[in-house]
Design a protein that fits this description.
13-stranded mixed β-sheet, disordered N terminus
Length: 476
């Protein structure tokens, strides 16, 4: 089950209404937006019939699960009561939509996802009528089937070498040339629109010029030629970090949003007057390329035995290449200090956690763990063995424990393997959101594993559109 214990919340069992078991046959009418709750349902003859109750109308209609990326058809969706017992189940339609029947009021929901080899279960705690629980199906990142061959505009004074690297896909190595007109191969995780960037640099100053093009369609073969036209002088973004908790080490990064895809940037620490390096970092970016920038600082603390790690993160949206910002860890969420697993039933593990103070300011949390084995030699970069799987559970703020829900016998392949569980507990406070209702409906659909070497077990992140995302996490 997904039983949530909280020091500040009343038991979910007392808040949510239990129901009898039921199967789901409702579907969104053809031609309608599958994410909008329909006011009417199609009759058997194709005409429109009145809905079975006023609760179907508007935002308080039946709960829905929407698979928004990856394989969508035929995904099993389970509805649970507050104790994790299955009270109904269905499968998604061709649009990736599963709808709870009007008479069912589940307290928890699970979607059983996968890529045909590995299994991923995503569960939500504390759901409500009207919810549209968005989620991405499992999709392993790849480097695509093709590549570009980029020809830079020419030599740049002061440049010692020229490099083409994306940096998103498994940290692939850049390809170098000492000639500003020599073609450079360019690989990436391709999307509908792609940017290609060449850096002119030297060992003392770093990047001295950029050349880029964006909006390229995905290459279908290797070596698709692209001629870059001009060099631009880098703009400099400065990000500082203050109030880092004692005993924690902070590291700052910056990404740039290009056509909805986040790309890494070139960063370096700023030297103090006495020759030492402080918390300030500067990032060089090509003006005119990105729509926005996302700065992030992670303050981490490793356990003395080198095992588990606590991380406090603050991620901030920046609107232009001339801006800078200071990330103040006085606003960080409380640190999670321990995670404990109850091993009474290895197929339904229960986890509990503690923090230095209640994480009351969060919008919600995610518990993510995986099992099986992983290796760089299994199926390519960071491959996972066929017995590998993962589970993500989204919980309300203030939660202090969770237990997995019951899965019917026919879904045993989605159950954890004994003795191999590893993962993290994380809580998020998101300026773009207003509480747990927004969090639980969005996070599964916004999380992304592209470029993440731990693509199976990673819980993903929500990137701020404006303001900050503050997170506190601990591995186990």
């Amino acid at each position: 089950m997904l039983t949530v214990r909280s020091s500040s919340w009343v038991s979910l069992a007392a808040l949510l209404v239990g129901c009898t078991s039921a199967d789901v046959s409702d579907r969104a009418p053809a031609g309608e937006d599958p994410l909008e709750a329909p006011a009417t349902k199609p009759a058997s003859g194709g005409d429109t019939a009145p809905s079975s109750g006023a609760a179907d109308e508007g935002p308080k209609g039946p709960l829905r699960v929407a698979v928004v990326e990856g394989a969508r058809d035929g995904i099993p969706v389970l509805f649970h009561d507050a104790e994790g017992v299955v009270i109904g189940q269905t499968k998604t339609d061709a649009e990736g939509i599963a709808i709870a029947p009007d008479e069912l009021a589940p307290a928890q929901v699970s979607a059983l996802l996968g890529d045909g080899e590995h299994h991923l279960t995503v569960s939500w705690v504390g759901v409500a009528r009207g919810d549209v629980l968005r989620v991405k199906n499992l999709a392993r990142p790849t480097s695509g089937e093709g590549s570009f061959q980029l020809t830079p505009p020419g030599d740049v004074p002061g440049a010692e070498y020229y490099a083409a690297a994306d940096g998103r896909c498994f940290g692939g190595p850049p390809l170098y040339s000492s000639n500003g007109t020599a073609p450079l191969s360019y690989y990436s995780c391709w999307s509908d629109k792609n940017a290609a960037i060449v850096r002119a640099a030297n060992t003392n100053d770093g990047v001295v010029a950029f050349s880029f093009v964006k909006g390229l369609p995905s290459p279908t073969t290797h070596g698709v030629p692209v001629k870059l036209e001009t060099w631009v002088t880098p703009a400099k973004l400065v990000l500082d970090t203050v109030s880092v908790p004692d005993g924690m080490n902070a590291f700052t990064t910056m990404r740039q949003d290009i056509d909805g895809v986040l790309h890494p940037t070139d960063g370096q620490s700023v030297r103090n007057a006495d020759g030492t390096y402080g918390t300030m970092r500067e990032f060089l970016v090509p003006p005119g390329l990105a729509e926005r920038y996302v700065g992030r600082s992670d303050a981490s603390r490793q356990d003395p035995d080198g095992g588990h790690r606590n991380v406090l993160s603050i991620e901030r949206a920046l609107v232009d290449a001339s801006s800078g910002s200071t990330i103040d860890f006085a606003r960080a969420l409380p640190e999670i200090t321990s995670v404990t697993s109850n091993g009474e039933d290895p197929k339904r593990p229960a986890l509990s956690w503690a923090s230095v103070a209640p994480i009351a300011d969060a919008d919600g949390g995610v518990i993510s763990f995986g099992w099986g084995t992983s290796s760089f030699s299994v199926g390519g970069p960071m491959g996972y063995s066929p017995d590998s799987g993962a589970w993500r559970v989204y919980v309300p703020p203030g939660s202090a424990s969770v237990k997995l829900p019951i899965l019917p016998a026919e879904y045993a392949a989605w159950l954890p393997l004994e003795g191999t569980m590893r993962g993290s507990v994380r809580f998020d406070a998101i300026d773009d959101f207003d509480g747990y209702a927004a969090y639980r409906q969005a996070i599964g659909g916004e999380s992304s594993w592209i470029g993440d070497q731990n693509w199976l077990v990673s819980p993903g992140t929500i990137t701020p559109k404006q303001g900050d995302v503050r997170s506190s996490s601990r591995t186990f």
